[in-house]
Specification:
The complex is a heterodimer of chains A (159) and B (292).
Chain A: E1 4-10, E2 13-19, H1 25-32, E3 51-54, E4 57-60, E5 73-75, H2 89-96, H3 106-119, H4 125-132, H5 143-158
Helix pairs in contact in A: 2-5
Chain B: E1 7-9, H1 14-24, E2 28-31, H2 37-42, E3 50-53, E4 63-66, E5 69-73, H3 78-83, H4 85-90, H5 92-98, H6 104-109, H7 112-118, H8 124-131, E6 135-140, E7 143-148, H9 149-152, E8 153-155, E9 158-159, E10 166-172, E11 179-187, E12 194-204, E13 210-217, E14 223-224, H10 226-232, H11 239-250, H12 263-291
Parallel strand pairs in B: 1-3, 2-3
Antiparallel strand pairs in B: 4-5, 5-10, 6-7, 6-10, 8-9, 11-12, 12-13, 13-14
Helix pairs in contact in B: 5-8, 10-11, 11-12
Classes of the chains: A alpha+beta (159), B alpha+beta (292).
Chain lengths: 159, 292
């Protein structure tokens, strides 16, 4: 199959790579770009672990081909923290509120939450839960995740 | 869990798309939002030789009102439909059903045309489009043809689309004054595939008498419940009326059994949902009369 050259901006940095059309965006991010913070769970769009932002919108990176992201802006969990010593308020609150256990679902949840707070800086618990319905967590029972996002929303608004 | 190889095409215009589809015929699959096709490809249940990606065809991505009719380009994202002010005020049923499609991450990519052309039995949009009496514009290399939503789906994941054709546009007439609509569904968890779903549209005159009604159930293909529609026509809304209409709605209908629910359960669920959707739609119709 003919390879294609694609260029995309990931966490603000431009990357160019060669890829087969059948390569999923999730695999391109992990294996070609080496950004393994994006996790791959079910590979059929159910679990939400591979959620990244494409041009600001949370999407399943396992349900897109990398060639389709040519020219797009991608945000992954690696780009969330402003610098190496500072956590994003969402990451801080997940840490403080014990919003994770095994951590497998966490990158996808953080990016979904980031998109939610951009769209709605003061979400209700119901709205938070509605957005989280697309991200499966089998450890926490979600209570601490909802708390962390609610508190992060206040923190983001305050700053 | 990785898709098999395919030849990838990313045309920029509709005429390029139809030329490609005309040339490739049955070897080509159209890729819209990919939220159903890509999982099938990941499982290798689908192995198209050629994939014609519509995502860079700007002329298929539009939402407009012309002559009182809502026109939806096939590549309109479900999330755009859900958030459109025009849709919320003029076609609230579309807003209501779209909220049931998967999750926000799915709706950000998933498209109106993709969901309709995929024709999955539990899908919400096909049921809504039949209820609203939408028309689908199908485009091939040789020209277009218009098909009523009701005649579009032939059976489970099978439509009247011919090789070389794509669903280009959906036209949805505005509901008559004094109309109310409702959609109800049962699923295992929020955002899961519907085990059963029902859409209702009820129009009341100034005296509160039903002058028009449409009721559609999920099934192998969206199923219009004509007997139920006839039963409510000319009557005043009441619990007994909608109970009887719901009973008629499921008389003799076909439903599938699978690992999630039996056919019998689906029939019973459709009956309960039909009763609630009709009552809900009538209440909303009455409220719109009160306001208007």
């Amino acid at each position: 199959m003919n390879k294609r050259t694609i260029t995309l901006r990931v966490n603000g940095a431009e990357h160019t790579g060669e890829t087969e059309p059948r390569r999923l965006l999730s695999d391109f991010i992990r294996d070609d770009l080496g950004l393994t913070g994006t996790h791959v769970g079910c590979e059929h769009g159910v679990c939400g672990a591979c959620t990244v932002l494409v041009n600001g919108d949370p999407v399943r990176s396992c349900l897109m081909f990398a060639v389709q992201a040519d020219g797009a802006e991608i945000d992954t969990v690696e780009g969330l923290a402003p610098d190496a010593d500072t956590l994003h308020p969402l990451q801080e609150k997940f840490h403080e509120r014990h919003g994770l256990q095994c951590g497998f679902c966490t990158p996808g949840i953080l990016l979904t939450a980031r998109a939610l707070l951009r769209e709605n800086p003061d979400p209700s618990d119901t709205e938070i839960r509605e957005w989280l319905s697309g991200n499966l967590c089998r450890c926490t029972g979600y209570v601490n995740i909802v708390t962390a996002i609610r508190e992060a929303a206040k923190e983001v608004s305050r700053r | 869990m990785k898709p098999a190889g395919f030849e990838y095409h990313d045309p920029r215009t509709l005429s390029e798309v139809t030329a490609l589809l005309g040339r490739l015929g049955e070897d080509a699959r159209v890729l819209a939002g990919g939220q159903s096709l890509v999982p099938l490809m990941n499982f290798r249940l689908a192995r198209p030789a050629h994939l014609v990606d519509l995502n860079r065809v700007a002329e298929l991505d539009f939402l407009s009102v012309e002559g009182g009719e809502l026109r939806i380009g096939a590549m309109t994202r479900q999330r755009v439909l859900e958030r459109s002010e025009v849709v919320v005020s003029g076609w609230p049923l579309l807003r209501e059903v779209t909220g049931f499609i998967g999750h926000v991450q799915i709706r950000n990519r998933g498209t109106v045309g993709g969901s309709l052309a995929h024709a999955f039995p539990s899908a919400e949009l096909p049921v809504a489009m039949v209820t609203l009496d939408a028309a689908f514009v199908l485009q091939g290399e040789g020209g277009e043809r218009v098909v009523a939503a009701e005649d579009f789906v032939l059976g489970t994941m099978t439509t009247v689309l011919e090789p070389g054709e794509l669903l280009r546009e959906v036209r949805v007439p505005a509901p008559a004054a004094g109309s109310g609509a409702s959609f109800r569904e049962v699923s295992r968890r929020y955002g899961d595939f519907a085990l059963a779903g029902v859409a209702a549209l009820v129009t009341l005159d100034r005296d509160g008498v039903v002058t028009a009604a449409r009721l559609t159930l999920t099934g192998p293909a969206p199923t219009r419940a004509r007997a139920a529609e006839a039963a409510v026509l000319g009557e005043r809304p009441s619990e007994a009326l909608f109970r009887e209409a719901a009973r008629r709605a499921v008389a003799g209908i076909e439903q599938d059994s699978d690992m999630h629910a039996t056919a019998e359960y689906r029939v019973r669920a459709c009956e309960a949902l039909a009763r609630r959707a009709l009552a809900d739609a009538a209440e909303r119709a009455a409220a719109s009369r009160a306001v208007g």
